[in-house]
What we know:
The chain is an all-alpha fold. It has 3 helices and no strands.
Amino acid sequence: MAALDLAGMWAALTLQSAPAPLVLPWRALAAVTAVCAVLATASAVASAAVVLRRPVPGPAAARK
């Protein structure tokens, strides 16, 4: 969504003959992306660990 907004502003400025280069804060963008990746990985590992720690029901539990 932000890319669409930036493209719209750039197009409007270009139409008014005031072209402006798109400047993105690459360090902040990379930091946010890295934090999101770490959080996604940690939550996936945590949920998998919870599921794998549950005891597997034996054949006696299936008969009840």
